[in-house]
Amino acid sequence: MELEILNPATEEVVATVPAATAEDVDAAVRRAADAQRGWAALAPGDRARLLRRFAGVVDAHLEELAQLEVREAGHPVGNARWEAGNVRDLLDYAAGGVERLTGRQIPVAGGLDVTFHEPLGVVGVIVPWNFPMPVAAWGFAPALAAGNAVLLKPAETTPLTALRLAELGVEAGLPEGLLQALPGTGPVAGNALVEHPGVAKIVFTGSTGVGKRIMAKCAERVKRVTLELGGKSANIVFADADVERAAASAPGSFLDNTGQDCCARSRILVQRRVYDRFMELLEPAVRSVVVGDPADPATGMGPLISAAHRERVRSYVPESAPAAIRGEAPGGKGFWYPATVLEGSAGDRVAREEVFGPVAVVIPFEDEAEAVRIANATDYGLSGSIWTRDVSRALRVSRAVAAGNLSVNSHSSVRYWTPFGGFKQSGLGRELGPDSVAAFAEVKNVFVAVE
Length: 451
Fold this sequence. Notes:
By secondary structure, this protein is α/β, with parallel strands linked by helices. It has helices at 22-41, 44-60, 62-73, 77-98, 132-145, 160-172, 186-195, 208-220, 243-255, 275-287, 307-314, 349-352, 368-375, 391-400; strands at 2-6, 13-18, 105-108, 111-119, 122-126, 149-153, 179-181, 201-205, 224-228, 234-237, 267-271, 323-326, 340-343, 359-365, 380-381, 383-387, 405-408, 423-424, 427-428, 441-449. β6, α6 and β7 (179-181) form a beta-alpha-beta unit.
């Protein structure tokens, strides 16, 4: 079986890639286990040096990687260049954690007690199509730093950057088999990774439904798992905020990557006293986003990933829906969908479910208590933003909103050197920040008797 990779902007076939079978996964696990033993035996400084060399090789191929992302994912080239640079930065950051993966000395009677961080072995990283490069590096960079081998299963629609990154790892000097890309379908290659007894941990980013099934399979095998799942994040604008700045920033919070972002602030909650003013300001801000050819540096928003996904997004905006703002999108070939802003209430389907497209719903609220209640009226709890000049309110609401990653007076809440995780059905585990390398290690405790 082969995977046919389409350019979402043109619908042209850009590549065909063999799909990994369960037998391919088994062979890859065996190769990875062999490579991992030698990798773990390296002195920490040598492992860090090779990861930095890997970062340097990625840096030398930034434009190549970005152009692959443009063709296979339809990302605007500016975004794609940032994503390739983020892989480089994550490798550099993880390399810095190798020599800091230290144990502890614990005072005990009768001897010496010390702890070590031991690598888990072989780690499976299952990556979505919306951010193929950064999400892959979130998993493989700290896992490699901790001394593990990694099997990278990219999404069926976006395997090209994963394949190239694995090649660049070998070019940088990583042992053959240490970082392997296994393109394939979820039910075959993904399932084989999850069920394989030689895979010690699964890192999955994707839908909550699939994440639940992976979690159940890992539970059967007492296998470690990290899940970064769906979101339905709130962008809360209070009347005392800088409304002009909040409105100008709002498009970036739900149109970045054409809304195909689990952290998208697709629910905009606006205090009623400034609701009309906010909507007046939001319309020109939304319409100013340039939608078009992803290869053009001026483009701010590209196409959706596929025709099937476009139909799913469209189902949230029926023809009868009262669209307050509707942007423009190219006609003809390509999986285009216009930026769309609806006015609604917290009970609407579009306000409860993850659209994963360039669609937001604006909901008015009266006071702080109602804003928190609406923000928390969802099964998800991944991200969110709060706009207010009142520092006390900012801290109160930040504590009250059940989400893992929040920002105040900014639409950006994710920093790759700080912890990342979600509440409720948005995920399990944190693998960014200062403890990211330790997340891929087992703590071993050793007591040495002193006669």
